[in-house]
Amino acid sequence: MSSPHAYAIGDRVTIDPAVARASTRGVTYRVTRLLPVNVVVEPVDGGRPVKVNPTYLRPAPAADTTTSGSTTSASTGGEWTMIHEAPLHPGTLVTVAGAGWKQPPGELYVVLRDTGTGRVSLVPLGGNNGRYWRGVSRHLLTTVDPTRVRLDPEQTT
Predict the structure, then answer these.
(1) How many CB atoms are located within 10 Å of the residue 108 CB?
(2) Are 141 and 94 in contact (CB under 8 A)?
(3) pLDDT band at residue 84, thresholds of 50, 70 and 90?
(4) Are 27 and 43 in contact (CB under 8 A)?
(5) Within 10 A of 56 (CB to CB), how many other CB atoms are there?
(6) Which of the two residues, 142 and 105, has the higher pLDDT score?
C-alpha cells in the first residue's frame, strides 16, 4: 500500500475527513518524523503528536500568511462543509474495499447497524458464526442493488 503523495519533514497536512476522528478533523499538522510505515505529525498550533498512515493524509490548504498567531476557520471566515449521508438501513447489502480493510474486496456484507457517526457494523452475507465487524468506516462501503444479485445455476443452496 503506497501513498499517492510522498511527504517530507516539514510538510503541512490534514487527516482525510472521511477517516478523521472528531478531535482530528480539520486540524492542520506538520510532518515531524517519517517512520518505515507511518508518519508522525504534530498540530501546527501545538498539541499532541499523532502517528498516522500516510494514505490517510491530504496536503493542507495554503496557509494565510497575512495574519499572525493561531488561526482557525472561524477566525478567518472559512466555512466547514460536512457531507451528510443518509443512514444505511439494517439489512442493506454492501461490498467493502479500501485502505485498512483486510478481507477480500468482492465479498458481500449485510449492514447490522449504522451509528450515524460514519461507522457501521457489518456481517458477511450468510453469517460468520455470530461474528461481525463494528466500526467500519462508511467511506469504504459500496451499496449493492439486491436485484442484481443472483445464484449461479450450479449452486443448490
Answers:
(1) 14
(2) yes
(3) low
(4) yes
(5) 19
(6) 142
Residue 65 has pLDDT above 70, yes or no: no
Single-letter amino acid code for the residue at 77: G
24-49 pLDDT, tens digit each: 888 899 999 999 989 999 999 888 89
Q: What's the sign of the alpha-carbon dihedral 68, 73, 79, 83?
A: positive
Give CA torsion, residues 69, 82, 94, 141, to 10 deg.
-20
pTM of the model: 0.52
Q: Can you tell me the distance from the alpha carbon of 36 to that of 129, in angstroms, rounded to the nearest whole number?
A: 37
Tracing cell 476557520 back to the chain, one arrives at 73
> Would you state the cell numbers that stand for residue 23, as one nine-digit string?
478531535
Q: Which H or E run includes 142? A: strand 141-143
The residue written with cell numbers 480539520 in the block is: 26
Residue 30 DSSP symbol: E
142 Cβ neighbours under 8 A, 6+ residues apart? 94, 95, 96, 97
